[in-house]
């Protein structure tokens, strides 16, 4: 029995719909949307901090029809990398600042016999 052109078009349409659905599922699983609470937990910050970051434009989010923020995992991981770099940079700056304000200790001469393997004085 020969397939008609109409049946072939329907089969092709079904096949393409399945491919698109499969691609959408893979995208959803590899880059899921997370809630504000889940995102805050993942990044180790408060929900208010995340709201502030999105309001400042430092972190991308999407809005649900109900006005809730959602975050893609890839955006959170990118932000975390930037945040980690900013944090380390800040720590380095603070360490240099503290070191520049520390009083320098005068060098003291080592007393003979003060080390474990020093020879005793003659």
Would you kindly provide a written description of the structure presented here, covering whatever features stand out?
The protein has four helices and three strands; from the N terminus they run αβααββα. It has a domain at 25-100: Orthogonal Bundle (Multidrug-efflux Transporter Regulator, Chain: A, Domain 2). Strands 1-3-2 form a three-stranded antiparallel β-sheet. It has helices at residues 5-30, 36-43, 47-55, 73-101, and strands spanning 33-34, 62-63, 69-72. A hairpin with a 5-residue loop joins strand 2 and strand 3 (69-72). With 122 residues, the protein is mainly alpha-helical.
Order of helices and strands: HEHHEEH
Determine the fraction of residues in helical runs and give it as a percent range: 55-70%
Q: How far is it from the N-terminal to the C-terminal residue, by CA?
A: 114 Å
Architecture (CATH level 2) name of the domain at 25-100: Orthogonal Bundle
Low-confidence parts lasting 5 or more residues at pLDDT below 50? none
CATH class of the domain at 25-100: Mainly Alpha
> DSSP helix count?
4
* CATH topology label of the domain at 25-100: Multidrug-efflux Transporter Regulator, Chain: A, Domain 2
Q: Over all CA atoms, what is the radius of gyration?
A: 31 Å
């Amino acid at each position: 029995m020969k397939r008609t052109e109409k049946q072939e078009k329907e089969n092709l349409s079904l096949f393409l719909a399945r491919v698109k659905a499969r691609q959408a599922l893979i995208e959803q699983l590899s880059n899921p949307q997370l809630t504000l609470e889940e995102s805050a937990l993942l990044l180790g910050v408060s929900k208010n901090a995340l709201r502030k970051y999105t309001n400042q434009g430092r972190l991308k989010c999407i809005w649900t029809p109900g006005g809730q923020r959602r975050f893609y995992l890839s955006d959170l991981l990118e932000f975390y990398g930037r945040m980690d770099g900013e944090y380390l940079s800040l720590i380095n700056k603070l360490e240099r600042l503290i070191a520049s304000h520390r009083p320098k200790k005068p060098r003291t001469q080592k007393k003979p016999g003060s080390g474990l393997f020093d020879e005793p004085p003659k």
